[in-house]
Amino acid sequence: ETGVTQSPTHLIKTRGQQVTLRCSSQSGHNTVSWYQQALGQGPQFIFQYYREEENGRGNFPPRFSGLQFPNYSSELNVNALELDDSALYLCASSSWPRANYGYTFGSGTRLTVV
Amino acid sequence: SQQGEEDPQALSIQEGENATMNCSYKTSINNLQWYRQNSGRGLVHLILIRSNEREKHSGRLRVTLDTSKKSSSLLITASRAADTASYFCATDEGNTPLVFGKGTRLSVIA
Question: Distance from A42 to chain B by nearest Cα, in Å?
Fold first, then answer.
């Protein structure tokens, strides 16, 4: 398996709860980026992890946090869920420093907050 | 925030016709990439064009880049029903996160 795997594929949570999404990076890649995609919109950058440290962050509040592990897999944690957090969460792996090639995306986790 | 803006937002064509989508962006870039997304699933990388390239081909795909106008176009020739998807452009400013546009929804009618 050389692709990016995300789990779970679907998730329903209640407002105020916490959620953890998981992502395994493609073999040979050392960087993981997380994106949030609301319905009908393009993906919005949340943050990126390289060598287990956050290496760039988009316009998301601190209740969005992450981890990267020594095997380059990653988690996205969201605390105090809000209804607007309902979206498709995409993980993408790449290498840093990045040459001229594209990201490899996982199939995403569909999060519904009720 | 969005960097690239695709045009049109939606496109409906008959099978066999060509589909053209455009992307405009705001800053200097290292490269520009096009992705496809089927039914709200993951994005699939289609093609990358570097800032010093003007045109690139991959199978039925043709991408052009005009850095003076900060714009790119994606042409899909001889479209098929399986090409029905959303298409996104993404800009790479060089070791910064990819920034995506809002996408073009393409429907190819058999």
Answer: 4
pLDDT in tens, chain B (110 residues): 456 688 899 999 999 999 999 999 998 999 999 999 998 789 999 999 999 999 999 999 999 999 999 999 999 999 999 999 999 999 988 777 889 999 999 999 99
| Set of chain A residues whose Cβ sits within 8 Å of the Cβ of B4 | 42
Nearest residue of chain B to residue A10 (CA atoms): B41
Contact B34, B88 (CB under 8 A): yes
